[in-house]
Amino acid sequence: xxxxxxxxxxVLMALTSCSxxxxxxxxxxxxxxxxxxxxxxxxxxxxxxxxxxxxEPPTAMIVLAxxxxxxxxxxxxITSRDKLPASMADKVDYSKITRSFTPAQRKNLIYRFKIVPxxxxxxxxxxxxxxxxxxxxxxxxxxxxxxxxxxxxxxLDETYYQ
Length: 162
Known about the structure:
Strand content: 5-15%
Distance between the termini: 69 Å
Oligomer: single chain
Radius of gyration: 30 Å
Order of helices and strands: HHEHHHEEEEE
Largest sheet: 6 strands, antiparallel
Helix content: 25-40%
């Protein structure tokens, strides 16, 4: 009997605490109802002759939320030169950076980290970090460190696969 009563009290408390209000809150007036109707609100607000238009972000500025993969783990080019910034596209030499992991390196990465990370990334400046001695780096998926090279791209730290 006690268990049933205890269970009923718990259920009743849960229902009352989770229920939503049926009436919106409003300012109390001398009328006494405590709820201000939509027609009453419209009458109290002054009419504005100025129309507010939200500004659109400039189309020339593209903000990336995460790094772009340039060369994946198999050595395949994912991001072409025309998708990279113009200043960086001239420096990139795909013939030097398109390499895949060797089978032993791939097996080691899968054993240690359960995934094979991409080889080369493009990271925008607002996502990159800087060390105290001036080198730029990025941490990909909270696990893999990438360092910025002369071509402006971020390459996987060699300690992961050497």
